[in-house]
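lol ok so funny story. i was supposed to be doing the assay writeup but got distracted and ended up predicting the structure for this chain instead. priorities right. anyway since i did it might as well share w the group, maybe its usefull for someone
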Amino acid sequence: MAQGRKTGGGSRKGIPNRTTRDVRAAIAAFADANVGRLQTWLDAIAEKDPAKAADLFVRVLEYHVPKLARTETKQDVPEQPQTIKIVFVPPPERTEESDVACRGG
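and the output, tada:
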């Protein structure tokens, strides 16, 4: 093999490892087979230690509702606050001609 160079033989990018695929399938099958028993297990744990049961419940939820990634935003704050001036003006005088025009007549 040339120094620093691969000489083929590897798997293509994006193709999962066969062992990883098989392990994930086995875990999924185990979870599917025991999902009905989970409530019974949590109830039994909650009788002795409610806090531990709650912790386990939250940990199981992470597989159903994944944690959101943390994001950080930065915003430059101006040194001087911006002032907005709002001026109210009286409405224009209404005339018979403007009333007719508004009514489409």
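The chain has a mean pLDDT of 80. The two ends are 91 Å apart (CA to CA).
back to the writeup now i swear
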